[in-house]
Amino acid sequence: MIDHFENSASISLYFELPHNQAVALDVIARSTIAWDSLIKELASVAAPSDEIHIDFLSGTIGSRSINSIIRTTAKVAIDNPWTAGSLSALAGVFLLAPPAHIASDLTNHLAKEWFGHEDSVLVDGDIDRVATRVVELQRDRDAMRLKQQIFQEANKDERIRGLGALPKIAKPPTSLIIPRADFEEHGAAVDNEQAVETRTLTRNNQRVTIVRPYSKGEERRWKFEDKRGEFSATMRDPIFLEALRARHTELEIGEGVEMWLDLRVKEELVDGEWEEKEIDVVKVVRPNVDLQSSFKLAPDEPNKPDG
Questions:
Q1: d(Cα 191, Cα 227) in Å, to the nearest integer?
Q2: What phi and psi, each to the nearest 5 degrees, are found at residue 36?
Q3: At a CB cut-off of 8 Å and minimum separation 6, what does 219 contact?
Q4: How far apart are CA 117 and CA 140, in angstroms?
Q5: DSSP 100
Q6: For residues 158, 161, 166 and 171, what is the CA-based torsion angle, rounded to 10 degrees?
Q7: DSSP 237-291
Q8: Which of 2, 17, 34, 160 has most Cβ atoms within 10 angstroms of its Cβ?
Q9: pLDDT, tens digit, for every residue of 127-157?
Q10: 237-278: per-residue pLDDT in tens?
Q11: What is the 3-state secondary structure (H, E, C) of 49-86?
């Protein structure tokens, strides 16, 4: 059953400080911006059909916490949605999880710790689902880069003794705070591609139907459907993105619209089977956007680069 689903959940990024100590504003600012980007990146992978909004609520005096609320609007299978609460848990556990994708037992322990503090917004099976997804997402380079940036920024101010996250406005328990001694480990790049066989395929002129677009002209994930089922792909065609940024009103990109795409697919060999890990839209073949004539649609001819 498909329906629209709206909800919200709180989440706090916590900086542990000595009593009566302040912290550099630029460190807090850069860490918070990376935190915002990390939540959106994780949500775009786990729930590409969701519209995600992250609003600032307050900052807590003393040991500083940046208190925010995640709001989601989604067209989802309502028997098993990624709610705002489970996405909040996904972000918090991902931030705190050890920087190695094989550490599933400890990740599962962190998920249970997180859920032990806020279970009213969760659905059945979220603990295992979040723990499993965190382990998988530690192969996501963009998400790992943002996580590393948060710890690298916090490490620049020696007054920050710990970094944590919690699904409510309060001081996290010790189990949900990373001590300063571990900042360098969490901020270091991890080679998750080691001993993993990969290959890149191209699929040209693929006919798809839009399930969920992203209309702001940014390189973000869209959700499509083809004869094999639904899939997510990052829109990277510069001509098409420029048309979206120009807000061309005649460009139809809504749910149910057909498109023809050139796709780049990265796969990994897992247990003897090739699995899709990343899909990029390198070119929107149709509908065509003519940048020289006020972005008029020319659906019968493919897009061509300038020159």
A1: 35
A2: -60, -45
A3: 234, 235, 236, 241
A4: 27
A5: -
A6: -120
A7: -HHHHHHHHTT-TT---STT-EEEEEEEEEEEEETTEEEEEEEEEEEEEES-EET
A8: 160
A9: 777 888 888 888 788 888 899 999 999 999 9
A10: 988 888 888 765 456 677 888 999 999 998 888 778 888 888
A11: CCEEEEEEEEEECCCCEEEEEEEEEEEEECCCCCCHHH
H or E segment to which residue 31 belongs = helix 25-46
Match 């003393």 to its residue by tokens. 62
The HSE-up count of residue 34 (CA atoms within 13 Å, CB side) is: 21
Give the chain's length.
307
| Both tokens assigned to 297 | 């649609």
How far is it, in rounded angstroms, from Cα 266 to Cα 232? 13
12 DSSP 8-state letter: E
How wide is the angle at C-alpha 143 spanned by C-alphas 141 and 148, nearest 5°? 90
236: amino acid identity, one letter: R
Q: Which token pair is 77?
A: 């299978």
Confidence at 77, pLDDT banded by 50, 70, 90: very low
Q: What is the 8-class DSSP label of residue 108?
A: H
